Amino acid sequence: MKNFTVLPICVVLLFIRTSTSLDSITQSAPLRDGETLVSSGGVFEMGFFSPGKSNNRYLGIWYMHISPLTVVWVANREAPISDGSGILVTNDQGILALVDSTNRTVWSSSSSIIAEKPIVRLLDTGNLIISDQKYSKDHFIWQSFDYPCDTLLPGMKLGFNLVTGLNRFLSSWRSPDDPGQGENVLKLERRGYPQSFQFRRNVIHFRAGSWNGLYFTGYPVQKQNPVYKAKFVFNDKEAYYEYELVNSSVYSRIVMSPSGIGKRLVWSNQRGIWEIISANLADQCDNYGLCGAYSLCDFSSSRVCHCLKGFVPRNVEQWNISDWSGGCVRKALLDCNSLDSFRKYRGVKLPDTSSSRFNKTMSLEECRQSCLRNCSCTAYANLDIRDGGSGCLVWFKDLIDMKQLPQGGQDIFIRVPASELDFFEEKRYWNNNKRKLIGITVGSITINMSVILIVFGLIRCARKSKLKRSGKTKIYYSRNPCYNDLRMEDTEIQIFDLSVIVKATNNFSNINKLGEGGFGSVYKGTLGHGQELAVKRLSEYSIQGLEEFKNEVLLIAKLQHRNLVKLLGCCIEREEKLLIYEYMPNKSLDQFIFDEIRSKLLDWTKRFHIINGIARGLVYLHQDSRLRVIHRDLKTSNILLDTNLNPKISDFGLARTLWGDQIEAKTNRIAGTYGYMSPEYVMHGDFSIKSDVFSFGVILLEIISGKKNRGFSDLENYLNLLGYAWRLWREGMALELMDQALGERFNPSEVIQCIQVGLLCVQQRPEDRPDMSSVVLMLNGEKSLPDPHVPAYYIERKIPEADPSSEKCNPSSPNEMSLSIFEAR
Ligand SMILES: *[C@@H]1O[C@H](CO)[C@@H](O)[C@H](O)[C@H]1NC(C)=O
Ligand SMILES: *[C@@H]1O[C@H](CO)[C@@H](O)[C@H](O)[C@H]1NC(C)=O
Ligand SMILES: *[C@@H]1O[C@H](CO)[C@@H](O)[C@H](O)[C@H]1NC(C)=O
Ligand SMILES: *[C@@H]1O[C@H](CO)[C@@H](O)[C@H](O)[C@H]1NC(C)=O
Ligand SMILES: *[C@@H]1O[C@H](CO)[C@@H](O)[C@H](O)[C@H]1NC(C)=O
């Protein structure tokens, strides 16, 4: 009987959701808003959609079976339709036109060829095509692949056609709510030897450079990846980049995000998210032309820009104050005869090729000869690095935008006068060899970053020589596809000797133990000169594996805020993994608020100060820190208090960073602490900044009430702390929630406002919870507060428990729902 009551509701929902789908568009069967065109294999779907928070309607193509909606192409990106009146029509000449209610054509496909019997279809590649029966199947009169938006799909060409003049490039959306062309553009330029550029507001932002047979020289690829194969085609007719998938049933795309990060994503069925497999993580040297002419940018050295050997700064004063834009000039003029020589530089990103010429068949020696013959030739290199190198690329004019790459890169030969070469050939040989040896050790430290373990291993090796002096080293995280879950720039963390820590903690004695957590124990340590430390020692069998350890080190090293605990350094030696933090003499918040005596030390003013501090720390994590960090395990025992009772958020072992504009993610491994986890995280593994907001709400209510959410019992009504707080608030008795230990000195309206904020944070639906910057404004009375609804996990005795079968109607699982109905029909 139950099923009968449930089914009709589902059917109604289904009719709202699904719509008719067509397999082609013809004159008599246009595509209306609400209908979709589906590719024959059901991979892609085209129809009308509204992006993000916008209500505007756009005609777009998306993956049929991927949720959330992932749009790969938009027709009327600059001309939205404000209502549901849009119709895509085709005329007898095979021109598609998107028309709105006023018969205005907001978008149309342009093609000069007139079709006799046009057919409009959406292919399983995501390509919308117009073909004509009079041509072969593969000949398209028009195709959406020729007009990319922000997405490059497998089989799409990025580049130009010299015959038709077409130049296909990627351009970001303006924002997640507006698919109109934004400020970031990824494009091939055809001057000289073609190169790939990223433009921001029409200015070169980053030059990925020329193709060397395997990759664009500024985007070194370390190893064969299992997902895609890329190629670059350059002949008399066209120049373009294209990739295909190794496994065609995998979904992958390249997208230029509104914030200007070009990334390659692959859909993970298992995790239900788009995983980033590589992204253009710009470092300082990727600022186009930062070092001016004839210099090499090396972000792993303390002075970023270096003049090439035989060159000096054009303006020494500017150069000395780190204004490198003037670049470098030759110390001695070229002889301009066959006496000139070339100095070899290894592993570089080749300079801008807009003033270069190439020859695909010349050998390197022929290349050298041809460069020597022309006095304005400044450098040469192989065109293609495959099979030991082939082809010839020669530069005329100044060499700009060269970079020393941490891995990969190419060899280039730069012209210098004979007088510039070292006088004693032997001496040079020796110097070179010595330099090479040093280069290998030092180089490896800064270069080989693919596995953080290697980094730590090498640092240990190098420590003796390097760190003893300074006690500190810089670890640089390079652009690296293996480590792209963190957006890294140079980070400074101290590496401690295990022996120093053993001594400081009395060999991890029990007396020094401050606490124990899931990941191991925390010890107090005192260095020789009296500095106190908190040492987190990860137990061998701790849940915090190496992954989380890396995560925490890298994350915290980047995060600096007065409401976050400060990481001083780390130590990996033998089996030990240690994190060294500043010491917090007042330990954690839970040891105050849940303690009968110590709770009296926290009056309302102090508690309000703590609540505010935590909120500000979270605003920083969520939006101000450039990395978008979700803590995932906020609880009172992770809030530490310094001498002045300032709160500091700690324990980032579970924290995740989200990429750029990504705002939520999913995990199969739900880790956190019950009582603080939001319902969507507990049930579906969905976490977002709003799951942290939930935990914050719980902490806030715990601070006010002095009671633990977990373990709270209200025998009369079976309520948890959240339900209890809501009940009181609803009945106008919110002040009763307050901890008895607080006494009488407080501002009642401030407390009530605070409770209301807490309740808003623990709402069932993430979208009903405010974000942390709103929370800060609300706490300080700068933003009006909406009325909270029933909080999550609210069960009242008198209300019968929800019918579990009604979960089938849960709109969050539309796929399962539609599936069961299709089977039923
Ligand atoms: C739009 O065009 C159609 C056919 O051309 C016509 O029947 C209809 O009246 C027009 N509507 C408006 C609002 O102009
Ligand atoms: C291709 O990918 C699909 C889906 O991920 C997988 O099931 C299949 O085994 C893969 N095929 C090969 C040959 O790897
Ligand atoms: C620039 O710096 C170098 C090395 O530090 C120093 O020798 C030189 O005198 C400085 N020149 C000027 C003009 O400041
Ligand atoms: C490339 O170099 C070879 C050998 O020097 C020459 O025969 C050929 O004409 C050159 N090709 C072009 C396009 O200049
Ligand atoms: C050297 O190369 C430049 C630039 O390509 C060219 O304009 C010039 O004619 C060449 N000079 C000689 C002597 O070949």
Low-confidence stretches: 1-18, 423-491, 658-662, 797-825
- Could you say which structural class the secondary elements and strand pairing correspond to? alpha+beta
Instruction: Look at the structure and give the CATH class of the largest domain.
Output: Mainly Alpha
Helical run tally:
15
Domain count: the total is 5
CATH-defined topology of the largest domain: Transferase(Phosphotransferase), domain 1
Report the C-alpha radius of gyration, rounded. Answer: 31 Å
Largest beta sheet: what is the strand line-up?
26-25-33-29-34-31-32-30
Mean pLDDT: 78
Bound molecules: 2-acetamido-2-deoxy-beta-D-glucopyranose
Range of helix content: 10-25%
Annotated CATH architecture of the largest domain: Orthogonal Bundle
Main beta sheet, described?
Answer: 8 strands, mixed
Strand content: 25-35%
Distance between the ends: 20 Å
The multimeric state of the shown protein is single chain
How many distinct beta strands? 47
Describe this structure in a few short sentences.
The chain has 825 residues and is of the alpha+beta class.
What would your notes on this structure say?
Residues 1-18, 423-491, 658-662 and 797-825 have low confidence and may be disordered. With 825 residues, the protein is α+β, with helices and mostly antiparallel strands. α4 packs across α5, α9 runs antiparallel to α14 and α11 (689-705) packs antiparallel against α13. The strands form 12 sheets. An 8-stranded mixed sheet has the order 26-25-33-29-34-31-32-30, with helices on one face. Strands 35-36-40-41-39-38-37 form a 7-stranded mixed sheet, sandwiched between helices. A 5-stranded mixed sheet has the order 1-3-4-5-6, with no helix packed on it. The protein folds into 5 domains: 1-147, Agglutinin, subunit A (Orthogonal Prism); 285-426, no CATH class; 432-468; 473-583, Phosphorylase Kinase, domain 1; 584-825, Transferase(Phosphotransferase) domain 1 (Transferase(Phosphotransferase), domain 1). Bound molecules: 2-acetamido-2-deoxy-beta-D-glucopyranose (5 copies). Residues 374, 376, 396 line the site of one 2-acetamido-2-deoxy-beta-D-glucopyranose.
